[in-house]
Design a protein that fits this description.
This protein has one domain (about 25-250): P-loop containing nucleotide triphosphate hydrolases (Rossmann fold). It is about 40% helix and about 25% strand. It is built from ten helices and 13 strands. The protein has helices at about 1-25, 35-40, 60-70, 85-95, 100-105, 115-125, 130-135, 150, 155-170, 195-200, and strands spanning about 25-30, 45, 50-55, 75-80, 110-115, 140-145, 175-185, 205-210, 210, 215, 220-225, 235-240, 245-250. The strands form three sheets. The protein has a nine-stranded mixed β-sheet with strand order 5-4-6-7-3-8-11-12-13, with helices on both faces. The radius of gyration is 20 Å and the shape is globular. The N and C termini lie far apart (about 70 Å). The protein binds adenosine-5'-triphosphate (ATP) and magnesium ion (MG). Adenosine-5'-triphosphate (ATP) binds next to helix 3.
Amino acid sequence: MKDKYNMVKKIKHKKKQTKKVSISSEKVETNISNFDKLIGGGFEKNSSNIIAGGAGSGKSIFATQFLVEGIKKGEKGLYVTFEEKKESFYKNMKNFGWDLKNYEDKKLFTFLEYTPVKVKTMLDEGGGTIESTIVRQGVARIVIDSITSFVLLFDKEIEKREAALALFNMIGGWNCTSLLTLEEDFSETKELTSKTMEFESDSIILMYFPSEKGERNRYLEILKMRGVKHSKKVHKFEIRKNGIYIHLKSSRRFGKK
Ligand SMILES: Nc1ncnc2c1ncn2[C@@H]1O[C@H](COP(=O)(O)OP(=O)(O)OP(=O)(O)O)[C@@H](O)[C@H]1O
Ligand SMILES: [Mg+2]
């Protein structure tokens, strides 16, 4: 009798779980502490998102955590980089307990060193290593770190705009949720200089690392997220031993000396 009761309980529980999954199926949870609460549950599935900030603001750590959290749920990750060197990158990320080598061995994670010129060729010719890796491995989350040097390949604003459009169109066809990093320093303004990127992406997250009263603090805000009632606050965050932790409370204006 008790067994039967437990069985019914189990089935009910299973039903509940299934329901929960289907509700959130359009969202891709980042599982970065508190971040999903700022954006209505996660990134939209298959969306293209930008994380922009100055040097050392935390973009690569954020982007890697986004991939690692996906891998933990069985979603394969691809990290395309123009700047990071594999060995030191793996070593740095291991400090957070993220064993990328192990994930790579299990074919859950791919590290791809790329050049901006190769991306340009890929846009002109279609396909390329990134696309074949995505198809072969069944990648669900992709990070391109960073697109800054790619943008720099183009001089004229119109060319930049066209290239950005082509890039986002291509990414849009990959059936992956993407996070692209962009190096921008917002110490003076809160405007992106790459306006093109701003228009083409589904969301933009800004990261700041200003000096305040003799020390630097980290902040993050959502500049835009299409179709989402996101937080409008500036949130302080920390880089902790297991990754990024975002404070939910709104921060006072930052950047005061
Ligand atoms: N294990 C760690 N624990 C705490 N903070 C760390 C740790 N490793 C790195 N950091 C901090 O994170 C910063 C680097 O973060 P990250 O590489 O994500 O920045 P970034 O925005 O990608 O920079 P860049 O534009 O140079 O690529 C370091 O400068 C340091 O302040
Ligand atoms: Mg970086």
